[in-house]
Amino acid sequence: MAYLLVLVFFLAALTHGTPKEYSQQGEGALLDSLKQQVGLLTNETKNYSPQVQPPGTNRRIPQSIIIGVRKGGTRALLEMLDIHPEIVVATTEVHFFDWDENYAKGLEWYKNLMPFSYENQITVEKTPGYFTSSLSPERIHEMNSSIKLLLILRDPTERVISDYTQVYYNRLENQKPVQVIEEIVIRNGALNTKYKAIQRSLYDVHMENWLKYFSLDQIHIVDGDTLIRDPLPELQKVEKFLNLRPRIMSSNFYFNQTKGFYCIRSEGRERCLHESKGRPHPMVNSTVLEQLQAYFKDHNQNFYRMVNRSFDWH
Question: For the Sulfotransferase domain, which residue ranges apply (predicted)?
């Protein structure tokens, strides 16, 4: 039906358009232009303009949410899952369940921020702040007690450094004063355990709250360190968890030597994550690293017991 509409517009353009317009654009270019004007590029909703509702689609509450963790690789995971034709993604972080001012706007407001999707497609939203929010588990459970949750984690010490790096560059760009990481992580000769970046890496503490509301088989943990090195195996596990046909292939990825990580090849296009992703980490004093690793050790072991799985974390 979509392409029939395009054909009608195309024939009308040939009939009523000026010879100059047609000769300059050419048949193929004119057809592409008309497709773009009516939002009809393929039969997949992700190629439509956000303002145009494709026939047979609706906005739907997410059937799966990437709940975190911040600087764990949530954006990479979302972009890579977007390759799958049966997945549509919300492109922005909504912060519905962790920000009171947004939650007060109601579920209809939340749904209206979701992309259009067909009935056979899964809508995925990601907001990394959900994992460390004390309110999010109960609120998401109230919305849908059977929802499937995705949690991507990486080595807690590396995650702290990545968290610091993001804030460091943001402050530089906004011409604000910056501190070296050692000055923040260490206070009065001891580890500053109140530092938010450290708090976010206490995976066992936050996971305990989620397991009050969801069973472990509803939460799939993606190994963020593995996803960076070799994306496909981790994505295949997600496909299985979401009961999707295996459609993501090794050909969908290529290693970008300049950036130092994998980029995406899909629908004839190549794209990499934003330049703010994958920034080089600062050199950190080895003693500070050892203190961080020692602090996280017991928390990591506790987390392994909670999820019946271990990770290659220091």
Answer: 63-299
